[in-house]
UniProtKB/TrEMBL annotation:
InterPro entries for the chain: SNF5
Compartment(s): Nucleus
Family of the protein in this entry: Belongs to the SNF5 family.
Taxonomic placement: Eukaryota, Viridiplantae, Streptophyta, Embryophyta, Tracheophyta
Major place of residence: nucleus
Identification of the protein by name: Chromatin structure-remodeling complex protein BSH
UniProt KW keywords: Nucleus, Transcription, Transcription regulation
């Protein structure tokens, strides 16, 4: 695999963003308080106002009947991950011929997904959610939780 140094040799600099149609951030939560654990993964629009984070945390805690202490932890975790993502915004990202391997190794409910393929970092119209939908359809996977898990796994690897 080529090193990232090759990116710097290209004259095609664009501002940082995840190479997908929607510049959404993968968020992963794994919080444990007093022996109670909350785990989740989803995508977040970094353009949403930060006030939405607290609203989301409160709604999640209420819907899942979690102790109120989870509100702060959920909000802080989301905010930390968004802050890291935003720290890259505005930086130049050099585009040349660049494809990266994506590896899926997921267990979602009773479905095991193992696959690998290449993703073009220069195609900013790529859509992990559409890819996951097509993947599930092609593989006759009916579990509605599998597609979102695949899309999140793709976004996490692209973000890395």
């Amino acid at each position: 695999m080529k090193s990232h140094a090759a990116w710097g040799t290209s004259k095609n600099a664009v501002k940082f963003r995840i190479p997908t149609a929607d510049n959404l951030v993968p968020i992963r939560l794994d919080i444990e308080i007093d022996g109670q654990r909350f785990r989740d993964a989803f995508i977040w629009n970094p353009s949403d106002p930060d006030s939405e984070i607290v609203v989301f945390a409160k709604r999640t805690v209420k819907d899942l009947k979690l102790p109120p202490a989870f509100i702060t932890q959920i909000a802080q975790s989301i905010q930390t991950q968004l802050t890291e993502f935003r720290s890259y915004e505005g930086q130049d990202m050099y585009t040349g011929e660049k494809v990266v391997p994506i590896k899926l190794d997921l267990r979602v409910n009773h479905t095991l997904i193992k696959d690998h393929f290449l993703w073009d970092l220069n195609n900013f119209e790529s859509d992990p959610e559409e890819f996951a939908k097509t993947f599930c359809k092609d593989m006759d996977i009916e579990d509605p939780e599998v597609g979102p898990a695949i899309a999140i796994a793709i976004r996490e690897q692209l973000y890395e």
